[in-house]
Amino acid sequence: MEKIRTIEWKNNHVMMIDQRLLPHQEIFVQCKTYKDIACAIQTMVIRGAPAIGVAAAMGIALGVKKSKAKNYSSLKKEFLKIYEILYASRPTAVNLRWGLERMKKLFYSLKNTSLEKIKLTLEKEALYIYEEDIKINRKMGANGKQFIQDGFNVMTYCNTGALATAGYGTALGVIRAAHEEGKKIHVYVCETRPYLQGLRLTSWECYKEGISQTVICDNMAASVMAKNKINAIFVGADRIAKNGDTANKVGTYSLAVLAKYHHIPFYVVAPTSTIDSTCPDGSHIPIEERNPKEVTHIKNQPVGLKKVNVYNPSFDVTPHELILAIITEKGVLRLNSA
Questions:
Q1: What architecture is domain 145-334?
Q2: 246 with 278: CB under 8 angstroms?
């Protein structure tokens, strides 16, 4: 049983822990419709590429389950509407599209079956995707823990733990696997401005798991590296292009450049569903831009000028030349030499 339950299917609705309120409040949001799920994805109730993929699959299943359509043709029209609304909720994380496409392919294969069987089969598939994600994360942890030695200081960015997935985690899952093996590890958690996923979420998960940690401001990373305090860096990914360029939370690129200068191994941890074979390189990855208030406000309290230009991309792209290896559930893809 996972200690942290990010998302669950319960009867005829989906429950999600509201990540906007962590670490001070552990409140769950009840999504009764697919539009509720789309809104939850868009407003960051749930975030993290694998978790978004699971949520999207559950959104499809929930929308179809509650449909009043009388025949396949009518249901198909509703399905495509549900698909488009969920697809538009977050543009960068390819796992969202992966989850939707998987459900779409299954839906089309059920054309000659009853509507009740279609609804039941889609629900089962969404639950299978959920369970599958946890298994995949554990495999990534097993594949990646070899890169963490006893006594290592590691750095991570944003949140890549159970909260970013159905459970266990990607980059933080590797750290968790090494910790469970009994290795003594200390994690330097970058705060991750402007949304503070490191400070609010990763630190909370480390606390829950009993993993030793130190939170630092993002602009402290270089000085910490310069003092030879970091042995390896592990980050997640929202999309990996065909050539290995990787989109992740904005600020990841900066860490990769710093890691290269300080000769620190830089690893990306992501499931193979994050690899977008249709995207040739990082320049083709769509980068989501979010509300300027995420930069100028904290908890809805203004900390800057009321009228100021703000640039708030949610992601940046790390060139493959800066990545030592990509750790997946199927193995480790080494991109460069140490």
A1: 3-Layer(aba) Sandwich (3.40)
A2: no
Catalytic residue status for 238 = yes
Q: How confident is the model over 202-251, as pLDDT tens digits?
A: 999 999 999 999 999 999 999 999 998 899 999 999 999 999 999 999 99
Q: How far apart are CA 144 and CA 128, in angstroms?
A: 24
Contact assessment for residue 94 and residue 49, using Cβ atoms and an 8 Å cutoff: yes
CA 93: distance to chain centroid?
8
Q: How far is Cα 145 from Cα 179, in angstroms, rounded to an integer?
A: 9
- Residue 136 contacts residue 271 (beta carbons within 8 Å): yes
Pairing mode, if any, of strands 28-31 and 13-17?
antiparallel
Please determine, looking at this structure, whether the domain spanning 7-139 carries the CATH number 1.20.120.420.
yes
Beta bridge partners of 208: none
Would you say how long the chain is, in residues? 338
Task: State CA 131 to chain mean position distance.
Answer: 16
Angstrom distances, CA of residue 292 to CA of 129, 191, 311: 34, 18, 7
Q: Out of 36, 133, 218, 238, which one is annotated catalytic? A: 238
